[in-house]
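Before relying on records like the one below, remember that each one covers exactly one chain. Contacts with other chains, cofactors or solvent are not represented anywhere in the record.
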Amino acid sequence: MICQDDAAASRLLTGLISESKHFPIIAIKSSKLARALGTNGAQLDSKSMRALPFDLIKIDFTNSSNEKVMVIAIGYALLRNSWWRGEITAVLNTSFIGDWDCAPRSHPNDGKFDVVTVGSQMRPMQRLIASRRLRLGTHLPHPQISTHQATSLELSSNALPNLFVDGQRFAKVSQISFTLLPDAVTLCW
């Protein structure tokens, strides 16, 4: 199947998993995830496309209306209310969120995802300085920025942060869990 971008692939995979259907091989035409592989997306006119297995992140969350929702992330999930105040948590299958290299050591098929947390005590000026360094992945180390790798993670928050998955904004969440699905899909580049 051909998807226009990472968000479209995320929507496709979410629909398929909720219907208990098998995942097809997917080519993403314009992909931020592909940057980790040194490309911008699938070269549909190429005779030498490569098919590679990729991990996915299954996200189960409870929104502010107390509804339970599931979504699949190909590249990342982000929890935040503001870039400038409050805690920010990114769960990444790749190092990039847009043009920002948030988790320089992350790899899209290493059997784990990277978790980057910005502490709520980090001041706006410090965030500005870190954001300028994000394009090069040189924002670490900082005492208010922590990183670790995991295959599952559960969080809850009274602050009801907004959830963003592969560029799509979802809802404010109170509880959320992330589960790695290793080698879950084959992507073509």
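The chain has one domain: 2-188.
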